[in-house]
């Protein structure tokens, strides 16, 4: 964390015991302090990427064999097609540094303002836009740069962000793994119920955060540290080891694993 | 109104295309510039198809493994057959197929054998680069009425010591 050492505007310097008037005390001018909760202070402590990542589309899963050892892994195939840098956001104008990256090609139902946005960048209209926040403005790539699947090397770890499959309104057994009520011993019509939700007259209310039935799934989820098994810039795909959130055809963000960026 | 789909003038890749308002009687709208997309990958072929074909080409170049799993092949591998798995680096093994778990390149066989009176089962990934080939050693006189033979375990229907019955000497 790079907070300045001097948290007050002025510092009093006394070299030896002396009797001096307050007016003659020397002062040292320092820069304004950076507050922890200010946007700049938050930016200093937050983890950022060092380069933008990719947008992919989950296409399905395959078995992947390690040719040397013969081991078999479940692997997810992600398609990388027409990924280009559309816009760069800067600290002075937007308050944060980010590369806006687009995926695919889509002209139908584009608004006029978005078409203008793409035309300024001299790229074709995109299906999907996402942002990758970066630490330094020098890490931004020029607008119009095409990002290919060989951005990541085989064997490196990546984080893959997606939206999980929606399960609708789900009960507590499915949503939170509750055991439910017994099948017999007098239980009637409440076999999948949550049971008690609290105590008695004290506290006389249900505590906040109580696990109950409700909407399940369709939330953003990051699967961390997936190994890149195969990638091809020419054919536009990345194969990662293991599973990725979301159904087939859903957009995912692929970026360098944050665990590998830490010193 | 404004219709971005009507591309009036198509020039080479990355050259601006003019989109025009085509309905008559309206004032001419501001002309929007739309850039052409980048060239299609794999000549527009589906990615999963492409990857599966590439994998089969890599792990089954002759097509022999695919052939014994092919439904239309009368000589196909079936549950109840006795097979010998020939590996590239280790010695071959013999077992009776009691289940075939079909899932494309992940297809595996469940083999059962009786070694010194103890039933032994193991999965063999068919398309593993370690498996050189699969030989069908013996076929039953009559196939059973189902494809998963889990019910034969430790019954009078169980497989015997296949290696001694076939006459294969086991390496110690």
From TrEMBL, chain A:
GO BP term, example: translation
First-listed, main subcellular location of the protein, grouped into a coarse class: mitochondrion
Signal peptide: none
One annotated Gene Ontology cellular component of this protein: mitochondrial large ribosomal subunit
Keyword annotations: Mitochondrion, Ribonucleoprotein, Ribosomal protein, Transit peptide
Subcellular location, record wording: Mitochondrion
GO molecular function: structural constituent of ribosome
InterPro entries: Ribosomal_uL3 (IPR000597), Ribosomal_uL3_bac/org-type (IPR019927), Ribosomal_uL3_CS (IPR019926), Transl_B-barrel_sf (IPR009000)
Domain of life: Eukaryota
Keyword presence, Mitochondrion: yes
Transit peptide found in the keyword field: yes
Similarity comment: family membership: Belongs to the universal ribosomal protein uL3 family.
PANTHER family named in the record: 50S RIBOSOMAL PROTEIN L3, LARGE RIBOSOMAL SUBUNIT PROTEIN UL3M
Protein name: Large ribosomal subunit protein uL3m
Organism of origin: Kuraishia capsulata CBS 1993
Automatic annotation (TrEMBL), chain B:
Keywords annotated in UniProt: Ribonucleoprotein, Ribosomal protein
Similarity-based family: Belongs to the bacterial ribosomal protein bL19 family.
Protein name as it appears in the record: Ribosomal protein L19
Residue spans crossing the bilayer: none
Gene Ontology BP terms: translation
Annotated organism of origin: Kuraishia capsulata CBS 1993
Gene3D superfamilies: 2.30.30.790
One term under GO cellular component: mitochondrial large ribosomal subunit
Domain of life: Eukaryota
Molecular function via GO: structural constituent of ribosome
Pfam families in the cross-refs: Ribosomal_L19 (PF01245)
PANTHER family: LARGE RIBOSOMAL SUBUNIT PROTEIN BL19M (PTHR15680:SF9), RIBOSOMAL PROTEIN L19 (PTHR15680)
Keyword Ribosomal protein assigned: yes
């Amino acid at each position: 964390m790079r907070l300045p050492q001097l948290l007050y505007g002025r510092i009093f310097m006394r070299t030896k015991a002396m009797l001096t008037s307050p007016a003659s005390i020397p002062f040292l001018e320092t820069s304004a302090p950076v507050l922890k909760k200010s946007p700049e202070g938050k930016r200093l402590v937050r983890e950022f990427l060092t380069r933008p990542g990719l947008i992919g589309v989950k296409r399905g899963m395959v078995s992947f064999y390690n040719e040397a050892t013969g081991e078999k892994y479940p692997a997810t195939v992600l398609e990388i097609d027409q990924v280009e840098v559309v816009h760069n956001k800067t600290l002075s104008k937007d308050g944060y540094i980010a590369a806006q990256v687009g995926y695919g090609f889509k002209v139908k139902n584009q608004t006029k303002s978005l078409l203008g946005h793409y035309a300024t960048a001299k790229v074709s209209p995109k299906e999907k836009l996402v942002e990758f926040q970066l630490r330094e403005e020098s890490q931004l790539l020029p607008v119009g740069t095409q990002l290919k699947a060989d951005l990541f090397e085989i064997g490196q770890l990546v984080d893959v962000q997606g939206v999980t499959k929606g399960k609708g309104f789900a009960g507590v057994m499915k949503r939170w793994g509750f055991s439910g009520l017994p099948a017999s011993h007098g239980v009637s019509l409440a076999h999948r119920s949550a049971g008690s939700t609290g105590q008695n007259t004290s506290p006389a209310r249900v505590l906040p955060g109580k696990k109950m039935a409700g909407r399940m799934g369709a939330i953003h989820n990051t699967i961390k540290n997936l190994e890149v098994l195969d990638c091809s810039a020419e054919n536009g795909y990345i194969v990662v080891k293991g599973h990725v959130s979301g159904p087939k055809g859903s957009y995912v963000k692929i970026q360098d694993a944050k665990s590998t960026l830490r010193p | 109104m404004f219709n971005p789909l009507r591309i009036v003038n198509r020039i080479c890749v990355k050259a601006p295309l003019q989109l025009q308002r085509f309905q008559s009687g309206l004032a001419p709208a501001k002309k929007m510039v739309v850039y052409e997309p980048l060239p299609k990958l794999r000549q527009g072929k589906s990615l999963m198809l492409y990857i599966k074909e590439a994998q089969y080409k890599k792990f089954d170049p002759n097509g022999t493994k695919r052939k014994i799993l092919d439904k239309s092949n009368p000589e196909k591998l079936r549950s109840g057959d006795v097979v010998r798995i020939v590996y590239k680096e280790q010695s071959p093994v013999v077992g009776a197929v009691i289940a075939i778990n079909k899932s494309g390149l992940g297809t595996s066989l469940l083999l059962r054998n009786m070694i010194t009176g103890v039933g032994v089962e193991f999965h063999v990934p068919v398309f593993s680069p370690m498996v050189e080939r699969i030989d069908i050693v013996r076929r039953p006189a009559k196939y059973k009425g189902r494809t998963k033979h889990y019910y034969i375990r430790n019954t009078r229907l169980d497989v015997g010591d296949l290696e001694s019955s076939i006459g294969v000497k086991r390496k110690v």
